[in-house]
Amino acid sequence: MSLKNLFQQFLNEKRFIQNVSQHTICFYEQSAKSFNLQEPITKSQLTERVASMRQAGKSAGCVNACIRGINPFLTWINENGFLAESLKVKQLRVKQRMMRTFSDAELGSLVSHKLKDFYEKPLDLDKQFSRNAEKSC
Fold this sequence. Notes:
single chain; 137 residues; mainly alpha; 2 domains; elongated
């Protein structure tokens, strides 16, 4: 059975038996398109595809999304006996972003602010804190 037919069978099972959404089906299709797998599927082919995506300028997060989309197919073909060895692509390491947090002074002004009457608008926090940030720099 060809890889294209196997992938179509995988999508049909996901769609009609596991009842995944159309968005998930599109996600699987995009991931398969990004990997452009050829028979026989090997670990080196998968590693080569990941490297080529990175060389093409795709971010690690983007490549990880493609990996999350192709791994269910790799698991499915192994579980159904179409692939002798179990293959899974490891995700790339992604730099964690640090979220900006409020300082003690900003939290204090947020907690202590009282509305003068019912119709007063709440503090515009973005303006208030951006002014404080400009002063401290």
